[in-house]
Each structure stands twice: as structure tokens, then as C-alpha cells.
């Protein structure tokens, strides 16, 4: 005698999907923890961990949890800061390799747990089995040499470092600079000038040289070297098509603000701002550029509104490296607009 199969309710299906996708989170977390452990092994200092919209940062010896609004950001990111240049390539390689290794450990450990859990506990077996699958997926995605959207996977970075040469040397210094910038502990003018020199030491048309140019631009601008900053920005703009499409807006918007406030070319600034619409960028960066362009167009009421909105958004930014300079620029726009609207007091130059 056969019995009809009991239909699976929608609630069971939804719970199953929830468990499957929820277990992707610990897979990402464990992968990033691997990078942190790798940094600890080689003497790097942990500073920042980004998981989706959540940000964990060390500030004055204390761990802080914050949220950001960079909606285009997915996955994870870890910033561990090298204290010096000593054997930087090998040490950076260990930091990079530990991420995929921890993912592989999750896959193997989950597989072992699945084998050990009794069959009369199907929910537990399914859970550890799914965790194992996510561990293996994360391992394969990160360890396979590739450059999705222009960014190198861990496997591609390790392959680059293994080959050595000028490209590898430039890349490890870009990584070191990015970690230092992401920490938010130093203004751009205090970034390691030796690392900046290495990051811009191979002038080609690559995405990595574009990153190096932007790093040198921020450093020069914060040092007050406006002409030098403009030259670096022009070099980055000339290579903007080499930048991953979702992130080109960050260069266009920075160029729009610089052109509006420093070069005082409102027409070209508006063109650059229009090119920067869309893409993945912190909200305050877009508001800063718009406020600068409006100011150059003598639309002071609108510029003031955008600048004040940017000041409210700046603490929610995913990238703290530019926040100090960004806050300075927004505060200057506010003072300049209020001066134009209400007083006749002079406003000091922005840079």
C-alpha cells in the first residue's frame, strides 16, 4: 500500500533557502579572518574588517563597529598594515594565502563534521554539509587566478608575487598604501612617500598605475602641491577607461571637484560630474563633487545644501582614508557659501 507524499510547505522551503544563504556569511568572515591571522603571523597590524555593510575598526586600541552605506560593496575586505618594508613581498604573500587556506579548512572541516554527525540528525548534517560547500566555493573563487571587474583574486595576486618583477613590486606597495589609507589613521600627506614612489614607478596604461596616480594625487593635494596634484589627476583621467567600470565615477567626481574649486572651470567640472553619475562611490563623495560644481556656478544656496548633506553623510563612509580631507573640503565650501550669501568676510584658499 502506498501513501501520497506529504507536500513540502512554503515555510520549509523558505527556511532551507535562508540557511543556505546565511551560511555564506561565516564563509566570508572566516576567509577574512584568515587574512588577519596571516597579518598577525608576519607582524602586520590589524586595522579594518569590512563584511557587507558592517565595518570593524581598531581605533586607539579599541574595536569599533560601524555601518556604511556603500551599497555596491559586497563580500569582505581586510586591512592589515605593514610596519616597514622588510621582505614585504613574502610577508604580503603569506597574508594573501591565509584567506584561501582558511576557506579550504572550512570546507574540509565541514566535510569531516558531515561524516561524523549521525544520520538521525539530518538537520545538523545538512547544516555542516552546506557550510562545507560554502567553504569550498569560497576557496575556489578566491584561489583561482582571475581578475573580475579588474580586481585580482587572491590566487592572481599570489601568482603575480611568485613571478616577481616590477609589476609585483608595484602591486605590493599599492596594497600596503591601500591598507594605510583605509585605516583612516593618517592624512594623505602623512602616507609613506616611499610606497607612493614604488606604486607609481611603472608608468603604463594599466589599472594599477591609475590607482598609483590617484594615491599620489591625494598625497600631493593634501601637501598643498596643487600643480603636482593636478598632473597626477590628469594622468589618472587619461587612463580612466582602465579602471573597473563601476568605480570610474570616483575618479570623475574627484576631478569634477578639483576642476571646480582649484582650476575654476565650471563648464568642464559639470561635464566631469555628469560622467561620474552612477557607479559605486560613497554618498558624501558625490555630494562633495556636486557642492563644488554648484559653487563654481555661483549657485551658492544649492551648494550649501549639498555640502551640509555631505557633512551628515561622511561618517557613514566605507572608505575612511579620504574622510579627513573630505570633511575639510566640505567645511570650506560651507564657509565660502555662507560668506557669499551672508557676509563679506574673506575665506582662505582651499589648498
Give the termini separation.
Answer: 87 Å
How much of the sequence lies in strands comes to: 5-15%
Largest sheet: 4 strands, antiparallel
Mean pLDDT score: 87
Q: Shape, please?
A: globular
Tell me the radius of gyration.
Answer: 24 Å
> Which runs of at least 5 residues are low in confidence (pLDDT < 50)?
none
Q: Report the helical percentage.
A: 55-70%
Could you state the order of secondary-structure elements as H and E? HHEEEEHHHHHHHHHHHH
Give the tally of β-strands.
Answer: 4
Strand order of the largest sheet: 3-2-1-4
Would you tell me the structural class of the helices and strands?
A: alpha+beta
> How many distinct helices?
14
Structure write-up:
The chain has 351 residues and is an alpha+beta fold. It has a domain at 11-160. The chain has 14 helices and four strands. It has helices spanning 10-22, 24-41, 88-116, 122-143, 154-163, 166-183, 193-199, 207-222, 226-238, 248-261, 266-275, 283-296, 300-313, 323-342, and strands at 45-51, 54-59, 62-67, 76-81. Strands 3-2-1-4 form a four-stranded antiparallel β-sheet. Helix 6 crosses helix 7 (193-199), helix 11 runs antiparallel to helix 12 (283-296) and helix 13 (300-313) runs antiparallel to helix 14 (323-342). The longest helix is centred in the first third of the chain and has 29 residues, at 88-116.
Amino acid at each position: 500500500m502506498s501513501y501520497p507524499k506529504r507536500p513540502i510547505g512554503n515555510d520549509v522551503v523558505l527556511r532551507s533557502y535562508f540557511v543556505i544563504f546565511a551560511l555564506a556569511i561565516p564563509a566570508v568572515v572566516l576567509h577574512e579572518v584568515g587574512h588577519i591571522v596571516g597579518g598577525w603571523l608576519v607582524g602586520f597590524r590589524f586595522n579594518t574588517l569590512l563584511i557587507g555593510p558592517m565595518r570593524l575598526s581598531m581605533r586607539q586600541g579599541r574595536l569599533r563597529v560601524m555601518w556604511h552605506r556603500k551599497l555596491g560593496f559586497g563580500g569582505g575586505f581586510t586591512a592589515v598594515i605593514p610596519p616597514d618594508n622588510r621582505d614585504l613581498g613574502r610577508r604580503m604573500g603569506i597574508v594573501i594565502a591565509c584567506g584561501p587556506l582558511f576557506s579550504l579548512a572550512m570546507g574540509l572541516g565541514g566535510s569531516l563534521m558531515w561524516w561524523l554527525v549521525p544520520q538521525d540528525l539530518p538537520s545538523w548534517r545538512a547544516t555542516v554539509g552546506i557550510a562545507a560547500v560554502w567553504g569550498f566555493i569560497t576557496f575556489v573563487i578566491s584561489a583561482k587566478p582571475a581578475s573580475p571587474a579588474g580586481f585580482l583574486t587572491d590566487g592572481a595576486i599570489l601568482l603575480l608575487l611568485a613571478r616577481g618583477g616590477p609589476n609585483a613590486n608595484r602591486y605590493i606597495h599599492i596594497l600596503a598604501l591601500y591598507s594605510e589609507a583605509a585605516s583612516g589613521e593618517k592624512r594623505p600627506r602623512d602616507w609613506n612617500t616611499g610606497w607612493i614612489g614604488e606604486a607609481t614607478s611603472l608608468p603604463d596604461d594599466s589599472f594599477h598605475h591609475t590607482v598609483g596616480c590617484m594615491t599620489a594625487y591625494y598625497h600631493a593635494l593634501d601637501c598643498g602641491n596643487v600643480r603636482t596634484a593636478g598632473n597626477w589627476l590628469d594622468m589618472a583621467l587619461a587612463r580612466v577607461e582602465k579602471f573597473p567600470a563601476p568605480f570610474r565615477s570616483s575618479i570623475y567626481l574627484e576631478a569634477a571637484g578639483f576642476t571646480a574649486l582649484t582650476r575654476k572651470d565650471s563648464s568642464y567640472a559639470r561635464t566631469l560630474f555628469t560622467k561620474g553619475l552612477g557607479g559605486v562611490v560613497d554618498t558624501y563623495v558625490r555630494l562633495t563633487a556636486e557642492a563644488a560644481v554648484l559653487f563654481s556656478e555661483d549657485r551658492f544656496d544649492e551648494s550649501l545644501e549639498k555640502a551640509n548633506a555631505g557633512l551628515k553623510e561622511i561618517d557613514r563612509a566605507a572608505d575612511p582614508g579620504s574622510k579627513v580631507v573630505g570633511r575639510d573640503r566640505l567645511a570650506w565650501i560651507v564657509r565660502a557659501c555662507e560668506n557669499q550669501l551672508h557676509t563679506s568676510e574673506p575665506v582662505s584658499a582651499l589648498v
